[in-house]
Amino acid sequence: MKRKVLMIDPPSGWRYGFPKELTVDGTQTVTEWLVDNGYPKLLIEKLGKHFYCRHWEEEVDVEEDKTSSYDKLGPGEAYTEGYDFT
What we know:
Blueprint: E1 2-9, E2 20-21, H1 30-36, H2 41-47, E3 54-61
Antiparallel strand pairs: 1-2, 1-3
């Protein structure tokens, strides 16, 4: 299964592990997210209004959920698939 993600690559980002999938959740700015993900704030400040990031969409594979049926049970639920408890 595939899904689309937004990738971001700041200037000299390869030095800091970029490009990365942008996962801003609305509680922080992109700049804050970059700093939280290892990009130096000093570089952002140094470039000032000339700080730009490349970004693009990519399709990535999504791993299927491989947990067993037992792991997915909620409290008070019993696993009954394939058993006759009558």
